[in-house]
Structures are given as C-alpha cells and as structure tokens.
Amino acid sequence: MGWGGWVGAGCGGSAPGYDVRLQVQSVENPQYRGTLHCFKSIIKQESVLGLYKGLGSPLMGLTFINALVFGVQGNTLRALGHDSPLNQFLAGAAAGAIQCVICCPMELAKTRLQLQDAGPARTYKGSLDCLAQIYGHEGLRGINRGMVSTLLRETPSFGVYFLTYDALTRALGCEPGDRLLVPKLLLAGGTSGIVSWLSTYPVDVVKSRLQADGLRGAPRYRGILDCVHQSYRAEGWRVFTRGLASTLLRAFPVNAATFATVTVVLTYARGEEAGPEGEAVPAAPAGPALAQPSSL
Question: Model-level pTM?
Fold first, then answer.
C-alpha cells in the first residue's frame, strides 16, 4: 500500500490570508497590485497580526478534519478491496467530499474575518462570533454558503492529492530504513500539495467570491455560474489565477512539513507491531517501521 495521508490540500492548508483579499478585490478599484504589494500593505496597515486574520477558524476545525479525512480515506481504500491509482483517487475524493461539512463554515468565517475592517469598526470579534452572527441573520443556509463550490473544489482536489502522493512515494522508493526517507517524504508531500491546488484553484477563487459576496454592499452573484460569468466578463481568464502565487508559496512547505510530521508521529505512536499470531513484538533495532497514514 502507498504512503497516502492528508495534509490539507484544501482548507486545512489555510495560512496567512492575503490570497483571499487578492481573489475578491474589485477590478474597478483594485487595492493591491500583486502578492508582494498585498503582503506589504497588510503589515503596514494592520501589523504582522493582520496576516493571521481568521487563523482561529482553521485551527478550530483542524482536529475534526484530520479525523474525518484519515478515517474516511483509509476505510474507503480498504472497502474498495485493493490499492490502485484509481482507488487512491476515489478514496481521497470521498475524504474530500465528507470533510466539506466542517470545511465550508470554517472557510466562510475565515474569509469574512480576513476581509473585515481592522480596529473598533470590525464586525466580528472572532470565528465563533462570526458564525453566530451569520446564523442569526441567515440561518443554516447562511452558514453553508459556498458549500457546492467547496464540494466541487475539495472532492477532485483530494483525489488528485492522494493519487499524486502515492505515485511520488512509489517512484521515489520511500521505504522504512531509507536514510533519505524524510527528504523524500518532504518532496512528495510538498509537490502533491502544489499539484492538488493547481487542479482546482479556479474553483477556489469562485468559492471565495461567493462567500465574500454581500459583505460590502449588495450581493452581486446569483450562483456559481453567474459568478464565473461576471468575473470572466469583467476581468478575463486571469481572474481565476488571482492569488495563486501566494497559495503555491505556502503550499509546498506546509504540505511537506505536515506529511513528515504525520509519518513520524504515527510511527512512534504505534511503537510496536503485531506479530503473526497477534502478539506484540518489539520494533527492529534500527527503529519502528514507518506507519502508513491511510491504514488508520
């Protein structure tokens, strides 16, 4: 079986949120000229803390998302009967679809917090207050705004992610005891994160625009297709790559580091392996064999 695991190809990979500001800014009156200008402007106007607006929301849901993704991916792969590239994709896609239940409200809060004004004029005090206010005004429908676009992003993205990671770890020969195992896992995890983002990034732009719609002024979009149509008509195809550079810059190190951490933690958490008769046998002198994340 491959070395499948999850590192937040989608919402779990949330980090400093200048990508959202780039994705939703108005073409008629753009506030930022690009990733670097956005980065500098946020620090100048809001200090370094402005880069981490909305970070509490992803952190709140991270544990639940990891539990869902690991469980669903591993069980789906076992239920499919054998390990193959297609089954890796299907298991990852199933995991991505299920975790949208948590990911969508979490990203809605993150988006709203990142776009609100700084200082006393801010609308929301934090992630929970943001979701509570949205629920009070719009009910469950408001909490789940952008669910369809999140589903369209996460399902194929996680499928591509698991498939890419499995293929890379096999090609690199990631085996327990390999002195270069950790660098190989870092390379495979980081590359897989980039590929997964590239596969569905335009959908992420649409999702961000839908979740931010109506925050400042009257709502503009009637749905996903209308958002795509209006965005393309106003700004051309480049609108669907806005913020991509900042996303990819964080995708490699975040995904690489998380994969290495997950593998090491699972390895030493298990500590002992089951013998042929179900007896616990000590790990080899060189250290315990590396755990397979998707076998959870």
Answer: 0.77
